[in-house]
Amino acid sequence: MDTNTPNPTADLPRLYAEMAPHNLFPLWEVLHGLVTPTPRSAAAPVLWRYAEARDFLMRAGALISAEQAERRVLILENPQLPASSCATPSLYAGLQLILPGEVAPCHRHTQCALRFVLEGSGAFTALDGEKAVMRPFDLVLTPNWQWHDHGNTSDAPMIWLDGLDIPMVRFFETSFAERLPDMAHAETAPPGDSLARYGRNLRPFAGSPAARRPASLPLFHYPFAEWRASLSALAAHDAPDPHLGHALEFTNPADGGPVMPTIAAHVRLLPAGFTTRPRQATDGTIFVVVSGRGTARIQGQEFALMERDTFVVPSWHLLELQAESELVLFGYSDRAAQAKLGLFREQAH
Ligand code: 1HN
Q1: pTM of the predicted model, to two decimals?
Q2: What is the 124 CA–ligand 1 centroid distance (Å)?
Q3: Cα-to-centroid distance, 85 and ligand 1 (Å)
Q4: Contact, 102 vs 152, CB < 8 A?
């Protein structure tokens, strides 16, 4: 046999083996996995029962203080993304506990965070020294690089869901963080100040000295009482959207866009007995059950939904929601980032 005749079956593997130590690899072996016709999420659909997670969190509460831990949080980690601290490839979720009398010390970081309150009333998150006093199902933002500390001056435990863009900041390798030497930021404004100035379709009169938050993101507290009333008003008069039910997005009053540069958040209400048509979207979403009971079918896999459960719908997975009783959900996703990058797509069926 002519030893100069190419023999791909034997020679290609040899070529690969010889190239590999030089950090060179053949694209043609991997191209179809890199550029897929539709998204193939690495994440799994998954649900965390609130009652189960709460028990573990309370056990942690007896063993480590909020101050010692800096933040006493159980990470909701996607089982298909082990050791990643991710709920989806782009988003983090955790359950934070702060016991009566505790403080979580002041720090800031380039990650954006939101809090969605699940239990307790009267603890606060302070943003740059302004407290938002939190009640169940309030949404509170801590946008990137703003000082924030938490304290529980109530007489009951407070638990909330933390949603952060940690995986995105890790991907871009842009994490910076620092601690304030003091546990808490000095008070800079009375509680509720930003809500009064920016939260009611008002803003400080042009040129007045009353503007005090960063102009690009002035509002950081979206109380349950307000968003729930809006959803009820919609539900009283509109027919539900076949794919979403009644849905409202939280907006940044400065520009009408999503609440933070990377994260979008919304709420939806499904009337009792209503089932949505299947819908898929590229923004893998983390949902919290605010009230009611029902079922989420995620790419055919069924999850029974109970109050305060958290569940993940990965990118491009078909979602059908079924409301047994009136079902209210909160959801957050990386849609804000995807839209800016021209990547967001959705498909209704
Ligand atoms: C953080 O700052 C908080 O401020 C909670 O409550 C969870 C997870 C990773 C990084 C920063 C908070 C966090 C976090």
Answers
A1: 0.96
A2: 15
A3: 12
A4: yes
